[in-house]
Amino acid sequence: MTTLAIDIGGTKLAAALIDGQTILARRECPTPASQTPQALQQALQSLVAPFMAQAERVAVASTGIIHRGVLTAINPSNLGGLAQFPLVGFLSAITDLPVTAINDAQAAAWAEFCALPGDDDMVFLTVSTGVGGGVVLNGELLRGSGGLAGHLGHTLADPAGPYCGCGRRGCVEAIASGRGIAALAQDELAGLDAKAIFMHAAQGVPQARRLVAYSARALARLIADVKAITDCQVVIVGGSVGLAEGYLAQVADFLAQEPAVYQVSLRAAHYRHDAGLLGAALLAQGEQV
User: Fold this and answer.
1) What is the pLDDT of residues 54-95, one digit of tens each?
2) Concatenated DSSP letters for 210-250?
């Protein structure tokens, strides 16, 4: 059965036709910058139109919280200010297909769990526009009754840190995410995005190196906390920041400074940027028992 999988992120939208674990065709476009529900509707309709006739169902992985088919955001700035967007209802109407939806990091966590050689308890962390996560314990994906499970980027990293879009101060997301890195940049780096700041860090620019290190340290502390809470055997890191060259090695160096009880195996995401698409499709196909 062919699934039309959709991944809604703060930076890009992606769609793919998936059969089993095979991506048959794939498209993507930037997430609309106009910050209106109408812009997202138009972008999604254009993105999925070439695939609708070939699909038998739709599976969506989206940033934010998915509850009863409605998309909200713990940090609205990552969704362009969208609130209470009827995601499942809209996609059902334009595709005339059954639609399931889940948080993108939860979906990616399931895809990465399915790719593991064993059935270890695991946590997936995505560091991109925001910081999200997914937890698989005893072979089951944690979703939470309200869809909040795995929003690990909104745990505390630095009580004196910057304010987060969720309303708290010092969240991991406000420090470690691409948006957070860019927001903290000053002087000659002010106005640059995270990709450009990483390029400057690779060239040895001191401020850029400090910003990347601040991000990596915050993520390492989160991983230590996650180990204490879940006793997971592996933490998998994805996302555009998480997969940036040299970033995971820095995270590992900071994690190594924590006491031995908090050490855990770190891996880069197997499916890299397609984990959300695949995870949503696998869950819709009933791969979770």
Assistant:
1) 999 999 999 888 888 998 877 766 665 566 889 999 999 999
2) HHHHHHHHHHHHHHHHHHHHH--SEEEEESTTTTSTTHHHH
